[in-house]
Design brief:
By secondary structure, the protein is mainly α. It is built from eight helices and no strands. The chain has a single domain (12-163), classed as Tetracycline Repressor, domain 2 (Orthogonal Bundle).
Length: 164
């Protein structure tokens, strides 16, 4: 494919990357279905079961590092990433977190946005800041420890218990 062919379909680098991110999102979430409607236990279990594999298989670590690294030179790219990939996920996950707080799985005063900032920040730190390659098993173990620290350890344990 030539550069001219690419720019006929995508008018700017940001739109090309937005399309690529959208396809990555669809690929990563194809097994999830309407995940904002899922019971919290199911979603947490699926995140633990499938998330680490997606981070490793889809080379999401490299993509995330490039997006974050591009902010000084291409701030529009982060805006596209936020709009296409992050904001829809955060909105759906906020619905789940707010429901979890109403059901007593989280404290009623849980701020869903801050909760997600802590979860995402911890994962970015684990994936990008700590040296060494992380395999699926190491990422899964870290994610379970993180869920416990965020108050969702019981939710994950119920999921595990239901699978046995």
């Amino acid at each position: 494919m030539t550069r001219a062919t690419i720019y006929r379909r995508w008018t700017a680098r940001e739109t090309l990357l937005a399309d690529a991110l959208g396809r990555l999102k669809e690929s990563a979430e194809q097994d999830f279905g309407p995940w904002q409607e899922m019971p919290l236990e199911t979603l947490v279990g699926m995140m633990v079961d499938h998330g680490p594999k997606a981070w490793v298989d889809l080379d999401a670590k490299r993509l995330l590092a490039r997006i974050i690294g591009s902010v000084p030179d291409a701030p529009d790219l982060m805006g596209v990433y936020w709009e296409v990939y992050l904001e829809p996920r955060r909105h759906a996950f906020n619905i789940i977190l707010e429901r979890a707080a109403k059901e007593g799985a989280l404290p009623p005063e849980t701020d869903a946005d801050v909760f997600q900032d802590m979860l995402g920040g911890a994962m970015i730190y684990e994936l990008l800041m700590k040296p060494g390659e992380k395999g699926e098993d190491a990422l899964r173990a870290y994610f379970i420890r993180l869920l416990r620290q965020l108050g969702l350890g019981d939710v994950y344990e119920r999921y595990e218990g239901a699978r046995e």
